[in-house]
Design brief:
By secondary structure, the protein is mostly helical. It has one domain. The protein has three helices and no strands. Helix 2 runs antiparallel to helix 3. It is rod-shaped, with a radius of gyration of 24 Å.
Length: 100
């Protein structure tokens, strides 16, 4: 089923006028831009999900390695926080225009 934008882009005449061709190109460009923006959102969601999964994995691993030792846990927590900070910088540098 064609989108509403695609239906607007279609010409009704056999030989489209210059304005109809310009309109069709503009609508086609708009559809491509919307699809690309959707892809960027999906990519950012995938990156965010991956960062969260790795943070959970690292947190569980830190707890396992520390084995209840509070000093070792504190040292490993600093390393884990470094990962989270770097992951946040990576996410922010991914090109997101979403406000933080």
């Amino acid at each position: 089923m064609p989108s509403e934008l695609e239906r607007w882009a279609k010409s009704q005449s056999l030989v489209p006028s210059r304005d109809e061709r310009q309109h069709a190109r503009a609508v086609s460009r708009l559809v491509r831009e919307a699809q690309f923006d959707g892809l960027k959102v999906d990519a950012e969601a995938a990156l965010t999900g991956r960062i969260m999964e790795r943070a959970v994995d690292l947190d569980n691993y830190r707890k396992q390695l520390a084995g209840g030792d509070p000093v070792l846990d504190a040292v490993l927590t600093r390393i884990e926080v470094g990962f989270v900070d770097k992951a946040l910088r990576t996410q922010r540098g991914f090109g997101s225009e979403f406000p933080l």
